[in-house]
Amino acid sequence: MATVSNWIDHLSASEVQGSVYPGVGSEGVLVIIAILIWVGWHVISSKQEDGKMNAIVRKKPSANDWKSNITDG
Description:
Blueprint: H1 7-11, H2 27-59
């Protein structure tokens, strides 16, 4: 296992070239992927909620239908 005694010399070495972690420079791609997932999540959620609301509308509940949910207590 290699040890590093001087970080400045290590990071300026030709084989390292300042890369401290894998994937350096791909942050922009990751942000774009995250935004696409976020927008996709909202589109899917909206479609699911619209489907549920359309199912309720198809039942055509009246203004007094909520009373049938009240139990005699």
